[in-house]
Amino acid sequence: MSASTGVRAGIVREARWTDVPALAALELELFPDAAWSEETWWAELAGRPRRDYVVVDDAEGVVGYAGLDHGGDVADLMTVGVARRARGLHLGQRLLDELERRAGARDTASLVLEVRADNTAARALYEDSGYEVLSTRQRYYQPGDVDALVMRKLLPRKPHVL
Ligand SMILES: CC(C)(COP(=O)(O)OP(=O)(O)OC[C@H]1O[C@@H](n2cnc3c(N)ncnc32)[C@H](O)[C@@H]1OP(=O)(O)O)[C@@H](O)C(=O)NCCC(=O)NCCS
To answer: What's the pLDDT tens digit per position in 18-72?
Structure first.
């Protein structure tokens, strides 16, 4: 436990306002061409409870994050990212697991996401997590003519007690 921040390394937790600078810095590392600014993160966190962001820390601070847009029956994965220094430790998997748990708690039927066809790591993570390709948007990402894959995971519905 870090005495200064009160966070524990490796625990997936809800994103806080104080995480915004770290989230914007991680965006620059992960998505240099389309990084979300601090202003965008403020707007995203202000969109809660429809928006739903979780983070994971290591000893140095926020090391991964992921978020959903809860749109009723379907929840959209807004983003997921893990700092290079912490890749391959199943943090991406744990972030997705937590989002899935949160979606299940809202009785969501399916999770949907969009991924670049050339993003091997993300595609493998999603396939490992049970997502299937629903459709392909050809040459969606420009420049580069890269296809977008729309992937979906169906969640088990809870039985409703009458
Ligand atoms: C995609 C990303 C979040 C994966 O994070 P991670 O914490 O390293 O992934 P995990 O350790 O949880 O991996 C879980 C599984 O995904 C697959 N996987 C993850 N990274 C992989 C890679 N580089 N190559 C192949 N498979 C990979 C593996 O099946 C892995 O399971 P295993 O380790 O038991 O084989 C990370 O690479 C990242 O932040 N990339 C840049 C941002 C990005 O592209 N986000 C997605 C936008 S759609």
So the answer is: 999 999 999 999 999 999 999 999 999 999 999 999 999 999 999 999 999 999 9
Nearest atom (ligand 1) to Cα of 89: 11
Q: Is 126 annotated in the active site?
A: yes
| Topology classification of domain 12-154 | Aminopeptidase (3.40.630)
- Ligand 1 pocket (Cβ < 6 Å) reads 30, 80-82, 87-93, 115, 119-122, 124-125, 128
Sole residue written with tokens 């390394």? 9
For residue 79, the cross-strand partners are 67
Between CA 156 and CA 141 the distance in angstroms is 32
Instruction: Sheet with 146-154: list strands edge to edge.
Output: 12-14, 51-58, 61-70, 74-82, 110-116, 146-154, 132-141
Query: For the residues of 37-48, what is the DSSP string, one character each?
Result: PHHHHHHHHHTT
Q: How far is the CA of 161 from the centre of ligand 1 (A)?
A: 38
**What are the residue ranges spanned by the domains of the chain?**
12-154
CA distance 8 to 63: 12
* Alpha helix segments (H runs only) across 47-158: 91-105, 120-128
